[in-house]
Write a structure and sequence with these properties.
With 78 residues, the chain is mostly helical. It folds into two domains: 34 residues; 44 residues. It has two helices and no strands.
């Protein structure tokens, strides 16, 4: 039963991804040819770098917290 439900979940997720990609492709095609100014490119790159740095920083904090035992239940000291 578990393997079957896993395959159903994977199939539903794959169909959802394909549907979202189809919608995004259709919307992208309707936008047309748009020029981005130099300031727009700077903002785009800075936004991506800040987002990437935030993601890496939060993941690092999560791993540090887990390795040092901060995520262990209270009162479980040996």
């Amino acid at each position: 039963m578990g393997a079957r439900s896993t395959w159903i979940a994977v199939a539903v997720a794959a169909i959802a991804v394909v549907a979202v990609l189809a919608i995004v492709a259709a919307m992208w095609a309707t936008i047309g040819d748009v020029d981005i100014s130099a300031g727009g490119w700077v903002a785009l790159v800075l936004g991506m770098l800040v987002t990437l740095a935030l993601g890496v920083g939060l993941m690092a904090l999560m791993f540090i917290s887990n390795r040092r035992g901060y995520d262990d239940p209270a009162g479980d000291q040996r």
